[in-house]
Design brief:
The structure is a single chain. The protein is of the alpha+beta class. It has helices at residues 3-33, 35-53, 95-98, 125-138, and strands at residues 57-65, 70-78, 82-91, 103-113, 117-118, 121-122. A hairpin with a 2-residue loop joins strand 5 (117-118) and strand 6 (121-122). The longest helix has 31 residues, at 3-33.
């Protein structure tokens, strides 16, 4: 085998490898942006948060950014306690590959807390306190 044939063969293998990597990355990006995945993630997050907070949680809108790892949640409602216009959650890009996600930043926009007053007292104070306590204690950095 001649020297230039070896180089050509190595270049072809290298190009095939690069094409494979690009195809896998593009496929993953399209899957993450698909309606199926976003619907699944929305229902998973809603049910998981409902279990954790012991209140029904609904998420109306979800947006996923693959290349700058971020999830944007729109119109999040915690039944009887609060409603949030937008929640953005940022995490590390390599964390997905490790199957362990570390949240680096959480942004909350347009929060609204429902306060029920009966007989000059806050009627749903315990519910608000439980949600706040869980978020502060379990997830403190």
């Amino acid at each position: 085998m001649k020297k230039y044939e070896k180089k050509t063969r190595l270049r072809l293998y290298f190009l095939a490898f690069l094409l494979f990597i690009v195809t896998i990355t593009a496929g993953a990006a399209f899957f993450v942006k698909s309606a199926y995945f976003t619907s699944w993630l929305k229902s998973y997050l809603s049910s998981d948060l409902s279990k954790i907070l012991q209140k029904k949680v609904t998420i109306k809108k979800i947006q996923i950014s693959f290349f700058s790892p971020q999830i944007l949640l729109g119109d999040v409602r915690i039944k009887g306690v609060a409603a949030v216009g937008r929640v953005s959650v940022s995490f590390g890009p390599v964390d997905i590959l490790r199957r362990r996600i570390t949240i680096y930043d959480v942004g909350i926009a347009e929060p609204k807390i429902k306060i029920l007053i009966k007989n000059n007292k806050i009627a749903n104070y315990k519910e608000i306190a439980l949600v706040e306590k869980y978020l502060a204690e379990k997830h403190a950095v």
